[in-house]
Design brief:
Elements (H helix, E strand, L loop, with lengths): L1 H11 L23 H12 L7 H15 L4 H6 L6 H8 L2 H8 L4 H27 L4 E4 L8 E4 L4 E13 L2 E7 L2 H4 L2 E7 L6 E7 L8 E4 L4 H4 L2 E3 L5 H13 L1
Parallel strand pairs: 3-5
Antiparallel strand pairs: 1-2, 2-3, 3-4, 4-7, 5-6, 6-8
Length: 252
C-alpha cells in the first residue's frame, strides 16, 4: 500500500514543460520513422494552428486580407484562406469592432449596423418591460439564454408570443421594413414593432398570427396584405385583447 500511494503521488505531480533552448538534442540518434522534409512540413502546420497564433499573428493575417481585398467585412474574413474564421476573432478580441480598432481600420457601415442593433435591443427591452408592467400577473418574459431573444408567455394558457422589431429603410419604391427573426419564432403569434428610420422610436405595433417563413429576411410595407390580416395596437393596454382577437380569428 505504501508503494502504491507513493506511485500515485508521483503521477499526480504536474509535468513542467522545458523551453526548446533547454533541450539536449542528439541528431540522428536513431533511425527516423518519417523523412526530415515531412517532419518540417508537419511542424509548419502545427505552428499555423489557431490556438498557437498570438494576437499579433492574427492581426497580421487580417492585414494581408485587407491588402488583398482593399476592405474588410465578416463575409470576407470567413471566406478568406489567409486567416482564421470570424468566430476565432470574436472569441479572441471580443468582437469585430475591437479587431478593427486594433488594426486602425474604420468601418462606418459596421459601426452603424452595431449601433442600430444596440438601439433595437434597448427598445425591445423597454417595450417588454412596459408590457409586463401593464399586465403584471398575466405575462412573463422567458428566454433560453442571453443568445436568444425574449418571448412573452401568457400565464393563463402558456402561449409563447414572439416580440419582433423591424428596422426601417428608404428606397426609391418608398419606405419599407426588414424583419429578421428565427424561423421557429415566425410560426408563433407575433407582436411586430415597426421602427422609424433612425431606429430610435417605435412607429407602430401590430399583432399577427405568424410571420412569413419563406425567406431569411422579410421586407414589408405598411400596405402589405399580411399586415392587414393582423391588428394594429395603439396602446400597450390593448395588447392582450388584440392577441385574443387574432388568435380567435386564426382558429376559425
Amino acid at each position: 500500500m505504501h508503494v502504491w500511494g507513493r506511485t500515485t503521488a508521483l503521477l499526480a505531480t504536474p509535468v513542467r514543460r522545458l523551453p526548446v533552448s533547454d533541450w539536449i538534442v542528439y541528431p540522428h540518434a536513431f533511425e527516423a520513422i518519417i523523412s526530415q522534409a515531412l517532419f518540417l512540413r508537419a511542424q509548419e502546420v502545427f505552428a499555423s494552428m489557431t490556438n498557437r497564433l498570438s494576437n499579433e499573428d492574427l492581426l497580421d493575417r487580417l492585414r494581408r486580407v485587407y491588402k488583398e481585398h482593399g476592405k474588410l467585412s465578416s463575409r470576407i474574413i470567413d471566406q478568406s484562406r489567409l486567416c482564421p474564421g470570424l468566430t476565432t476573432y470574436n472569441k479572441r478580441f471580443g468582437g469585430l469592432l475591437n479587431v478593427y480598432t486594433r488594426l486602425g481600420y474604420e468601418a462606418s457601415e459596421q459601426r452603424t449596423y452595431s449601433s442600430l442593433r444596440q438601439r433595437g435591443c434597448v427598445l425591445r427591452a423597454s417595450f417588454v418591460r412596459s408590457v409586463l408592467e401593464a399586465f403584471p400577473n398575466q405575462f412573463l418574459e422567458v428566454r433560453k439564454n442571453k443568445r436568444f431573444r425574449p418571448l412573452l408567455r401568457y400565464r393563463k394558457t402558456g402561449l409563447l408570443i414572439s416580440v419582433t422589431f423591424a428596422t426601417c429603410c428608404n428606397r426609391c419604391s418608398g419606405r419599407n421594413w426588414i424583419i429578421e427573426t428565427p424561423r421557429a419564432d415566425r410560426k408563433r403569434t407575433t407582436v411586430l414593432a415597426l421602427l422609424d428610420v433612425r431606429g430610435g422610436t417605435i412607429e407602430s405595433v401590430w399583432v399577427l398570427s405568424r410571420l412569413p417563413v419563406t425567406y431569411r429576411h422579410v421586407r414589408v410595407r405598411e400596405t402589405e396584405n399580411f399586415l392587414a390580416s393582423g391588428l394594429r395596437v395603439e396602446n400597450v393596454c390593448d395588447l392582450l385583447e388584440a392577441i385574443r382577437t387574432v388568435r380567435k380569428a386564426t382558429k376559425r
